[in-house]
User: What shape does this take?
Amino acid sequence: MKVFPEGFTIGAIAPAGKVKEETISAGVAALRSLGAEVKLYPHIRQGHRTLPYLAAEDAGRAADLESAWLDPEIDMIWAIRGGYGCARFLEMVNWEKLAQRNIPVAGFSDITSLHWAMTAKNCGTVMALPMFSFLQDPNEATLKNLDRIFKKEEQCFTLPALRSGVISGLPLPGNLTVATSLCGTPYFPDTTGRILVLEEVREAPYRIDRMLNQLLMCRAFRKCAGVVFGYFTACGSDPEIMKVLEDFTGKVDVPVFYGLKFGHEQPFIPIRSDQIMRVKG
Assistant: This one.
């Protein structure tokens, strides 16, 4: 399957966690099989001098982001993996300079820090897409979903509802833990009119409750169009999670849906911030 047009070039960066060599090579091969050219940036293999969980020094990871963003040959930036680390360099980024060019930035999980900062700074296009590890062995549905997102096909979903309704608006996708970590910073975006699409992995139900409560106290849901929950992978039993989500729904005044195939599992439904999402249930 060819997803990308001829000559489409992706800048691959590692803005967060340390990356295995086999993940890089497999991801590059997968993107090339989908029709893209791939350019790797210099700090993806550097490592951090004291923190082994980071792909490189903060300044180096920020430099790769800016270099790829401003490179006229690059059509899109794709984060190789998440993990942790994007928030560490947000203060180093020249957002005014980057805002001069609208370029898609792909990834999810810890890339939420970067995506929500981009949204707060009105800079670039958020593309919540699978990481390289997903691309190593994507299932057929994930590939078809990638094809749809790059063709900008309308995103319409009918999902189970905790509070029914019909919502339409630009989505703001992200990982719940990472989104919550931005509360009170200049990188937490205005959620007015947005559809918040939230997923999580390996967090206990009480922690999910705590993070949703934190976002409630930050008024994140006060003026949003609605809330859509994706996968809650390895977060306890389904009944436990549903009790948390039902309790949350009682505290907001907008439609709330669940069951979107978005997050740390496959199939993966990509989401782009410049494309209207419509949800009913």
Summary: The first helix runs from residue 21 to 33. The CA atoms of residues 101 and 124 lie 7 Å apart. The longest strand covers residues 226-233.
